[in-house]
Amino acid sequence: MNERELVVVTGFGPFRQFLVNPSWKAAQALKLAGLGETVRVYTKELPVSYVAARRIITELWQTLQPKFAVHLGIVRGSSVVILEQTGRNNGYRDRDVCGFCPEGHCCIVGGPEKLDSVIDTRAVSKHLKQAGQNVIYSRDAGRYLCDFAYYCSLYQGRQRAVFIHIPSSGSLASADELVPLLQTLILTMLQQLGEPKHHEV
User: Which residues, 6 or more positions from 199, have their beta carbon under 8 angstroms from its beta carbon?
Assistant: First the structure.
């Protein structure tokens, strides 16, 4: 019997009015619900801190060597789920909860300007939209901790990561609605990850 595939799921810690960040609540609820018998879910809370988030993400990839990482963050005022395709290395000028900005306003000194997930999030969002789900695709994760954490994970994990922005309002803000959608999204992504990029003759 094959060992279960490991998927890391992160959410963020307290931020402004969110004493318990909805993204961390969603990560915990997802772990409880699981991703089926062939997948093991490992959750980790990321502080809204550039230094700590980068350190934790690096450790997760180096020590656990997961098959895939899913990072959850919140979009205030949004009622849809947003799948992010791209993480960007530069432009981090907003201070974190520690009042800190990353050196040189970048994630990884000397790293590529941007990195894309190996997952085609446009295809995934289209597939889910056709099934009547409120999911959209994006190439701009916002140049704050979400984007920063995403780029770090793409860099450390050879692009086997995805960032999902979850809504702060509307029906999808409730775990009952959100968790089944996240399960479907992640299992669809894992399926895509397992498909060969080209067929050998």
Answer: none
Return the CATH number at 121. Answer: 3.40.630.20
Residue numbers of the domain that contains 112? 5-194
Q: Which residue, among 76, 41, 99, 29, has the nearest Cα to 170 in the 3D structure? A: 76
> Is 51 inside any structural domain?
yes
The catalytic residue among 71, 107, 152, 165 is 165
Is pLDDT at 42 greater than 60 in this prediction?
A: yes
State the pTM of this model.
Answer: 0.94
Catalytic residue among 84, 101, 127, 152: 84
Q: What is the per-residue pLDDT across 154-165, written as a single tens digit (0 to 9) for each?
A: 999 999 999 999
Q: How many residues does the chain have?
A: 201
Active site (annotated) includes residue 84: yes
Given a cut of 90, whether residue 77 has pLDDT beyond it is no
Opening angle at CA 156, ends 94 and 147, nearest 5: 25
